[in-house]
Amino acid sequence: MLSYIFQRILYMIPILFLSSLVIFIALRVSNIDPVTQYIIHSNLPPTPEVIQAIQHDFGLDKPIMEQYWLWLKKAVMLDFGNSYITGRSVSQDFLYFLPQTLLLGGCAFVILLFFSIPLGILSAMYRDKIPDFIIRFICFLGVSTPSFWLAFLLIFVFSIKLEWLPPLGLESAKSLIMPALSIAFMSMCVNTRLIRSNMLEVKKERHLLYAKLRGLNKTTINLKHTFYNALLPIVTSFGMHLGEIIGWALVVENVFAISGVGLYSVQGFANHDYPIIQCFVIVMCFIFTLCNLIIDILYAFLDPRIRRNIEES
């Protein structure tokens, strides 16, 4: 098992390498010009001499592959360079803003787990009955509602009209409620529908009939036999939503003016700041590949057949 985990960790290296190469080249062959943004922010005259000097300072006058090699040597040491606009270390800025984003994402994931699992089970237990219809209607609204629109709606209702929750910032536990719910709501609804559909599929299996014939109560059948055997696709969905939650934080942090990685990265995108963009893409790729690794490990623990195949290989 340990060798399998180590092997999967090694697979992450070429993925991150290719991702960094693609984003590095894509930025430099596109029409995105960080020099122009730097000139605008610095109130410098856009003369050819000034442009040439800035390109030299940023290292943009070198061949692309030479630029990539110089960047890669520092990136493997977790040094992603300095921001073109602020001149500060991108790695240090990310570490400074990351706790806010992790806190927000963690709260969103707790909401996702806390609501989607019981709602999915309840919907499957009461199929085509009133609780099922209500839950399915909520899920239909949830998967059709963009997170940023829900964020504005929550601010309008709970901050402007009712004045129950603070609209901006992340000053207290109450400040977490609306942004975390905005991030989690769509994923929660998707997972609820997935849990329901998987449990209904498992209910068609023959071992469920045998469990009923043995006289087991309905709760035991639904939780121990139906839900447990429907877990593998659900675990996959939860793992992918981990990365998705961090991605949605990119948008929601801007709506609620939360000083996290999302707000910082959007400013980097707006300023065509190559080091920030490259660091953000690498971090997101790492999060998604790490989530896939966690999913594969959970698979082995949940399904003895997969664990046996791993041990035999």
TrEMBL record:
<feature type="domain" description="ABC transmembrane type-1">
    <location>
        <begin position="98"/>
        <end position="299"/>
    </location>
</feature>
<keyword id="KW-1003">Cell membrane</keyword>
<feature type="transmembrane region" description="Helical">
    <location>
        <begin position="102"/>
        <end position="126"/>
    </location>
</feature>
<keyword id="KW-0813">Transport</keyword>
<keyword id="KW-1133">Transmembrane helix</keyword>
<feature type="transmembrane region" description="Helical">
    <location>
        <begin position="176"/>
        <end position="195"/>
    </location>
</feature>
<keyword id="KW-0472">Membrane</keyword>
<dbReference type="GO" id="GO:0005886">
    <property type="term" value="C:plasma membrane"/>
</dbReference>
<keyword id="KW-0812">Transmembrane</keyword>
<feature type="transmembrane region" description="Helical">
    <location>
        <begin position="275"/>
        <end position="302"/>
    </location>
</feature>
<dbReference type="InterPro" id="IPR035906">
    <property type="entry name" value="MetI-like_sf"/>
</dbReference>
<dbReference type="Pfam" id="PF19300">
    <property type="entry name" value="BPD_transp_1_N"/>
</dbReference>
<feature type="transmembrane region" description="Helical">
    <location>
        <begin position="9"/>
        <end position="27"/>
    </location>
</feature>
<feature type="transmembrane region" description="Helical">
    <location>
        <begin position="133"/>
        <end position="156"/>
    </location>
</feature>
<protein>
    <submittedName>
        <fullName>Nickel ABC transporter permease subunit NikB</fullName>
    </submittedName>
</protein>
<dbReference type="InterPro" id="IPR000515">
    <property type="entry name" value="MetI-like"/>
</dbReference>
<dbReference type="Pfam" id="PF00528">
    <property type="entry name" value="BPD_transp_1"/>
</dbReference>
<dbReference type="GO" id="GO:0071916">
    <property type="term" value="F:dipeptide transmembrane transporter activity"/>
</dbReference>
<comment type="similarity">
    <text>Belongs to the binding-protein-dependent transport system permease family.</text>
</comment>
<dbReference type="InterPro" id="IPR045621">
    <property type="entry name" value="BPD_transp_1_N"/>
</dbReference>
